[in-house]
Amino acid sequence: MKYVLVTGGVVSGLGKGVTASSIGVVLKACGLRVTSIKIDPYLNTDAGTMSPFEHGEVFVLDDGGEVDLDLGNYERFLDVTLTRDNNITTGKIYQSVLEKERKGDYLGKTVQVVPHITDAIKDWIESVSLTPVDGKDGPADVCVIELGGTVGDIESMPFIEALRQLYFSVGQDNFCLIHVSLIPVLGVVGEQKTKPTQHSVRELRALGLTPHFLACRSAQPLLENTKQKLSQFCHVPVANILNIHDVPNIWHIPLLLRNQNAHDAVLKQLDLLSVAKPVDLREWTRRAETFDNLTKTVRIAMVGKYVGLTDSYLSVVKALLHACIACSYKPSIDWIAASDLEDDSAQSAPEAYATAWETLRGAACVLVPGGFGDRGVKGMILAARYARENNVPYLGICLGMQISVIEFARSALHMEKANSEEFDPQTPELVVIFMPEGSKTHMGSTMRLGSRRTLFQTPDCITSKLYSNSKYVDERHRHRYEVNPEVVGTLEEAGLRFVGMDESGKRMEILELPGHPFYVGVQFHPEYKSRPGRPSAPFLGLIMAATGQLEAYVQMQQNGSI
């Protein structure tokens, strides 16, 4: 197995995940099979209980793993299906070591960070790297490992030591270290500063790892004298100093690396030049250029709880991007804090209230994504009502679907107290209930998680046609609450259609509103499986409805011409 380790220095949030993904894309374009591992040094077992405000979205895998959002980047860029074990955390490592200690597996030895924790890290990496993730048999050729955080962080020290030992054990022809760093420009001087990177590399070398490559993040392309200076003081050849400057869209990053011959340099370091094919990034080039040349935009109202940090909805944003490009539009997302739409805001924050409603009315479609807790729920219900009553295309995901059920029950069935057990457990009109297998005491990994099958109840529905007339679809879930099966009949009599259910027929998965241009709710999270060039069906339907293309598409599906 060949390993490519990506570390970060100076500051966090430099784009190590995109860099690691892009390295993988370039190697894959050379005919190699690539897998990836993300190391998160925090003590949490997984990302499931972490606030989106603090850590961005929680990405869900097929096997139900709740992981860091960078694994979403890996899946989208490399078109692979990862497992929960591809995300290593300090919590997982310590948990596995302590379980062994309790069983007596260490035979009375004193259990220490070195060697026991470091050995567990190495064993985990070597085991997971051999697991195929691309649907083919046998292990991949290269494993790209991203070490989260910044070099020098106390919590990442055991991982750095384990990776140093791994480098020593596999040999220099099987290990490549790429250090991502920042080259800032001070406004007054206007000079590209290399000192932060010098200090970061010195820190890394003091820990026993010397980078083979520097991936330098900057606003503008690096000057030649900046590269010379970095080479001289960081002990990295000039040819191995890669510049990842700001680009119009992230699909340019693999092209940027190819243009600097990063693939040849990495292949040479890993002794893979003899087995690699000439790099082929024609599809990526076409994708990046297509996006750059789009002129028409479509306005999408995103009504959510965590709009203060766009990374909270990263996969939703990417899914909208994929769908918009398929429709030859650029997405223009209008972020609306759901609480700003509520009547209370009209009194407490009249300007925010007026702006939110003006933005909502100016959008071509409305999307209510997933979330937890009751903050902003009233605003989401108002947004769903606005979309339903004004024939504005609407997509509700997870909580967004439950919101549409609550709104419909209140408006169409005059169930004024209709609510979810999550928001009002005492209401006599429960239309959304807690799932029987859930836990009310433990939050981590107690939801309905991972890939589950949804069966279409009728081929005569928009969603089935968007999924290419499939009889079923496998999508990823992450929820504790579901539509109350006891009220389904009443809701359907009033006009709502539940066109997708689980295999038991008791869980409502997809709803539609006949007579509306596009009013769809899905209990699952279709954004997690959206890919560049293969947009998620519900998102594609929303954008086609917003841009006037859905009717023709559905007609073509009926005629069998797609």
TrEMBL record:
GO MF annotation list: ATP binding; CTP synthase activity; identical protein binding
Catalyzed chemical reaction(s): UTP + L-glutamine + ATP + H2O = CTP + L-glutamate + ADP + phosphate + 2 H(+)
Keyword Nucleotide-binding attributed: yes
Top-level class of the enzyme under EC nomenclature: ligase
SUPFAM superfamilies: Class I glutamine amidotransferase-like, P-loop containing nucleoside triphosphate hydrolases
Entry keyword set: ATP-binding, Glutamine amidotransferase, Ligase, Nucleotide-binding, Pyrimidine biosynthesis
InterPro entries: Class_I_gatase-like, CTP_synthase, CTP_synthase_N, GATASE, GATase1_CTP_Synthase, P-loop_NTPase
Record carries keyword Zinc: no
Ranges for domain Glutamine amidotransferase: 309-543
Pathway(s) where this gene product acts: Pyrimidine metabolism; CTP biosynthesis via de novo pathway; CTP from UDP: step 2/2
Example of a GO biological process term: pyrimidine nucleobase biosynthetic process
Catalytic activity, EC: 6.3.4.2
Positions of the CTP synthase N-terminal domain: 2-272
Function: Catalyzes the ATP-dependent amination of UTP to CTP with either L-glutamine or ammonia as the source of nitrogen.
NCBIfam families for this protein: PRK05380.1 (NF003792), PyrG (TIGR00337)
Family membership: Belongs to the CTP synthase family.
Name of this chain's protein: CTP synthase
Species the sequence originates in: Nicotiana sylvestris
